Amino acid sequence: MVHTEVAPTPHSESDAVRLKIPAVLAVSAAAALLLAGCAGSGTGASTATPSASAKSASTACNPPKSGSVSDAVKVTGDVGKDNTAAEPTVTFTKPLKATDTQRSYVSKGDGAQAKTGATVDISMVVYNGTSGAKLTSNGYAGTATIPVTVGGGSLIPGLTQAVECAPVGSRLVTTATAKDAWGGDPSSNVSSLKATDTVVFVVDILSSVPSKADGTPQAAQDGFPTVKLAASGQPTVTIPKSLKAPTETKIEELKQGDGATVADGDSVTVQYQGVNWRTGKVFDQSWGRGLSTMQTSQVIPGFTKALVGQKVGSQVLVVIPPADGYGTTGNSQAGIKGTDTLVFVIDILETQH
Question: Over the stretch 161-178, which tens digit does the pLDDT of each residue have?
């Protein structure tokens, strides 16, 4: 029989706004385990157009059905509404042997369904059902939750299957082979995991997360690039040729929110787009890929300055000179030179102290 031990791990994602360290070092254990594709492979140069899976995914609900393997996992403990709840106790007899993906409700919530395109905050504990080893735990006892965009493509398929079309407030058990859960060989993310191993996801769907800032629009300021928003909220940044790049970080509030204030050290969930002032081109963005969660201490200084002190629901434009960006060495993966000024539009959607 197997039961849980609390092993909280902070969540972050490897984006171009991260500090200048190898991508694999900028990714926490939980995030690296769940990232689609090769861990730490983000180049920061993505234009983040919607993935093929996201484009083709149907809005009709067709989640995995329950079965003998998922039903064999027993879970006790209260389902929280945020990340303050204790990690649940999970019990099963090893080795579990999955041949397909199965999903069972421990309890069913009454909130909105997590359909394609929706983003939900989850708490989660994951086990190797073959060995009984716990792989990761997140969103319990004050640790950061994980935002999951259904069909977004940035996280492994098994995690989308664990939440898709389930209502907010639910607790679910999903079991699958590691190969099915990761959509291929999982060893690049989790070296101890074999493709034939069974994986157990216990997921609490805590809340829905908005996809764009909903604050009050503010009057435009002189001396900044212009921003035009699509109906989805995705920005298009235009840098006038007559505009000179500033030598200090400048911040313009485009929308003013009325939610919680971001404090230094918080874990913040955002939509963002980064544009290189020199080229006028997008070098990285979360739009089309799914929301990004990061700690304010894990991003470049100018990005931190744009977040701390702002309220949830706000949208900010920040212009970052090299000194508050990637310094004189730049970021070659993202095509950023040591002399490049960066422009970010950031929608602040959630913060966790």
Answer: 999 999 999 999 999 999
- pTM for the structure as a whole: 0.73
277/108 Cα distance (integer angstroms) = 48
Is the model's pLDDT at 52 over the cut of 70?
A: no
pLDDT of residue 284: 93
Amino acid, single-letter form, for residue 24: V
SS3 label, residue 270: strand
Tokens representing 81 are 């509404």
How buried is residue 248: exposed, middle or buried, by Cβ count under 10 Å (0-12/13-18/19+)?
A: exposed
User: Is there a domain that residue 261 lies in?
Assistant: yes
β-partners of residue 120 are 148, 208
Question: What CATH number corresponds to the domain at position 72?
Answer: 3.10.50.40
| Residue 12 pLDDT greater than 90, yes or no | no
What band does 36 get if pLDDT is binned at 50, 70 and 90? low
Q: Structural domain tally of the chain?
A: 2
pLDDT band at 311 (very low <50, low <70, confident <90, very high): very high
CA angle (212, 14, 318) in 5-degree steps: 50
Q: Report, in angstroms and rounded to the nearest whole number, the Rg of the chain calculated over CA atoms.
A: 20
| Among 209, 226, 255, residue at a domain's last position | 209
Domain that holds residue 189: 68-209
Amino acid at 163: V
- Confidence (pLDDT) at 59: 57
Using CA atoms, how far residue 62 sits from 59, 79, 116, 161, 178, in Å, is 9, 24, 11, 9, 21
Residue 158: inside a domain, yes or no?
A: yes
Residues 167 and 202 in one domain: yes
| Shared-domain flag, residues 264 and 188 | no
Q: 122 and 189 in one domain?
A: yes
Distances (CA, A) of 22 to 127, 333, 349: 27, 11, 27
Return the structure tokens found at 157. 């398929």
Residue that is written with structure tokens 């929608």 in the block: 347
